[in-house]
Amino acid sequence: MEGPRLESPLIPSCGESFVSGDGGEDAGRRGREVVLAEVKKQLWLAGPLIASSLLQNILQVISVMFVGHLGELALSGASMATSFAGVTGFSLMMGMGSALDTLCGQSYGAKQHHALGIHMQRAMLVLMLVSVPLAVVWAYTGRLLVLFGQDPEIASEAGAYARWLVPAIFAYGLLQCLVRFLQSQNVVFPMMMCSGATTVLHLLVCWALVFRSGLGSRGAALANAVSYWINVLLLALYVKLSPSCKETWTGFSREAFRGIPGFVRLAIPSAVMVCLEFWSFEFLVLMSGLLPNPKLETSVLSISLNTAAMVYMIPFGLGAAASTRVSNELGVGRPQAARLAVRVVLALAVTEALVVGTTMVLVRRIWGYAFSNEEEVVKYVEIMLPILALSNFLDGIQCVLSGVARGCGWQKICAFVNLGAYYIVGIPSAMVLAFVLHIGGRGLWMGIICGLFVQVLLFLTITLCNNWENEAGKARDRVHSSSIPENIVT
Fewer Cβ close by (within 10 Å): the C or N end of the chain? Predict the structure, then answer.
């Protein structure tokens, strides 16, 4: 029998029941079929989304790996610049773009297909405008890092790297919009193919610009920008030419300018929600520069952060799948299907976290060699990986719950949760463990784990206490309030 399509309902509409006239056995079998169908749908979505996210994120990891073989100073500078760029730019673009998870996802579920292209255009306009001041900040990265108390030598190297990274911020903003636009329609395999092609090209571009052009670490930064623009071009061509987007992309419209304030009202809490979490992890690398032996601590914390970010792409893909499933089901008015999607994705996240955490512990003795030839760095990375495994477990759960929050439009309340978890619990704990108890870089990461635990606990409480029927009503109101008559789309 043919499996369920992504667009087909998993759970009957109001008034229908799993319980047939044949009794409880049929109801149980029907329930198992529904759960299995939801698992298949989520894995069908999550697989390509995980691959796409991993491939997009690995671009910066590859660049840092290339730079790491130029020497410890080059690695420290590139790592510091990457962290600074993440704090001041990439996280903001990702956060503001994630507003489309709610807007496009619920509109697609409600079959307001023509609205998706308008939402994406609004997001693109806003993100491009925001990128201009961010580019100016990146141009002065070196001076700003010195003001923050960083080592002048490392700061100078980081400043040069960040200046060559400036073109990447504009491409990254557009990329976030295109990814959310396609994701909300369950169009995920083309995203994976484009990301894969970009990654293969990035290896060649990075090698040429780092080792052959004489640019050194600056070539790695430029390679990031080139590769992000390649990815944007590939996805834009797909949206323009593919029949699968003919109903959702109907061309540019002046209507995109009229709804900008509404988009901004959702984009700001979306950005705050993402940035508060992202900044807390990047804070670890910045604070590592204040520890004894800052070059070692910064290098190891950066490797740890890049490793955590890479494995984070797996639950991030699950969270993106959950966001799509929840927003689509709420948009079409099936709250029970949305609730089932949450239960399934939590089970998948726990399973994934256990498998990945075990793998991290098993490879702890050799993983450091992928980033550095320094024996001191490799030994320190070996100590850090079991701590990262625990962090990944908690981070995986909060990641999928964050995806559920985006699908429902809970960005405001989740922003407050992240503020309390990381900045009242996590960072103060990290400071005490690292600088008062003198545990060093391990203490910084252990403090963030305390914040993660609080975040997961609060997110679970919010999700378990949610009234899904009310959320479906809110989604219906949101879609209708932002709907765009098709006759004004040109």
Answer: N
